[in-house]
Amino acid sequence: MIGSFSLGxxxxxxxPHACGADTWTITRVGADVKIRCLGCGRVxxxxxxxxxxxxxxxxxxxxxx
Length: 65
What we know:
The chain has 65 residues and is mainly β. The chain has one domain. It is built from 1 helix and 5 strands; from the N terminus they run ββββαβ. It has a 5-stranded antiparallel beta sheet, with helices on one face. β2 and β3 form a beta hairpin. The longest helix has 7 residues.
């Protein structure tokens, strides 16, 4: 489980996506978190609690906006 995250961060998830990639980039942060698969481009929206439970680590920090 990760501590804090922000827009543009690249996150490694515990389970891989159907395309085989396990890295995602965060495109929206709020009550829900929207992430985009870096393998196939699929966009998924998770509630914050489900995202925090499924995320393994932050691999790259996004730019501060």
